[in-house]
């Protein structure tokens, strides 16, 4: 029965059945999902939605937090050609300490457990992931109509969201864009650290009137270590 449900989920989210379920082209009697997403992005000042690109190469590793085993398997099947997906059934299953440097993006549901609908658990996971690695791009899954929750997730640091039921091509595009964003943010963070280090060394030298020994002591470095860093930064 579980296998049949998983296969049905994968089939339901396949682009080949696009006409049989509400999507961006056929949605009768309510706002279209694409309109919902646009409204959510518009509600977050200065938020720039991810721009999608065509698939070129594998993504790497995706962290998925999803309590429904059939949904998790459907996501794995949708991404199997481009990514390795590590599934955690609940936030408390995440490893401690939380190390995220091996992941290229995160995908998470917003509710875990029977009866949960407010998305608070998902927001808490966003906070935890952002605290452990603010460069990791996070994509959230939410049900149709959850615009307020999507807005709050974007404010907390999520980079994108998908409406359930999702389209597989949209899922692939979202995760590919998220992985690209992670790479860009990590490169920027590395550059920022270099700039911070250079500024700290320059300030220490200025305060100590160019005295290498005193500047090294102020920075908690040895003289040789400070010389190496000065040479690296052209000081």
Question: What does this entry look like structurally?
Answer:
This protein has 235 residues and is of the alpha/beta class. It has two domains: 2-185, Response regulator (Rossmann fold); 191-233, Arc Repressor Mutant, subunit A (Orthogonal Bundle), CATH 1.10.10. The chain is built from eight helices and five strands; from the N terminus they run ααβαββαβαβααα. The protein has helices at 2-12, 33-42, 69-79, 120-132, 147-156, 168-207, 212-219, 223-233, and strands at residues 60-65, 83-88, 105-109, 138-143, 160-164. It has a five-stranded parallel sheet, sandwiched between helices. The radius of gyration is 22 Å and the shape is elongated.
Provide key terms for this protein.
single chain, 235 residues, alpha/beta, Rossmann fold, Arc Repressor Mutant, subunit A, five-stranded parallel sheet, 5 strands, 12% strand
Question: What is the gist of this entry?
Answer:
This protein has 235 residues and is α/β, with parallel strands linked by helices.
C-alpha geometry: elongated
Cα radius of gyration in angstroms: 22 Å
Distance between the termini: 68 Å
CATH superfamily of the largest domain: Response regulator
Number of helices: 8
> Which fold name fills CATH's third level, the topology of the largest domain?
Rossmann fold
Number of domain units: 2
Structural class: alpha/beta
């Amino acid at each position: 029965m579980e296998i049949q449900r998983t296969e049905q989920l994968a089939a339901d989210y396949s682009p080949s059945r696009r006409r049989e379920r509400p999507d961006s082209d056929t949605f009768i009697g309510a706002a279209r999902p694409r309109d919902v997403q646009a409204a959510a992005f518009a509600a977050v000042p200065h938020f720039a939605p991810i721009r999608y690109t065509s698939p070129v190469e594998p993504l790497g590793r995706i962290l998925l937090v999803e309590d429904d085993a059939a949904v998790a398997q459907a996501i794995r099947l949708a991404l199997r050609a481009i990514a390795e997906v590590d599934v955690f059934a609940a936030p408390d299953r995440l490893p401690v300490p939380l190390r995220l440097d091996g992941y290229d993006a995160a995908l998470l549901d917003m509710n875990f457990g029977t009866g949960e609908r407010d998305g608070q658990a998902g927001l808490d996971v966003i906070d935890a992931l952002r605290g452990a690695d603010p460069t990791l791009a996070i994509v959230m899954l939410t049900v149709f109509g959850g615009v307020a929750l999507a807005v709050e997730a974007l404010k907390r640091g999520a980079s994108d969201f998908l409406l359930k039921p999702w389209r597989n091509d949209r899922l692939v595009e979202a995760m590919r864009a998220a992985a690209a964003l992670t790479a860009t943010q990590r490169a920027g963070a590395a550059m920022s650290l270099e700039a911070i280090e250079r500024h700290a060394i320059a300030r220490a030298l200025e305060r100590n009137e160019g005295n290498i020994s005193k500047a090294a002591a102020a920075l908690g470095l040895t003289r040789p270590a400070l010389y190496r860093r000065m040479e690296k930064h052209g000081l």
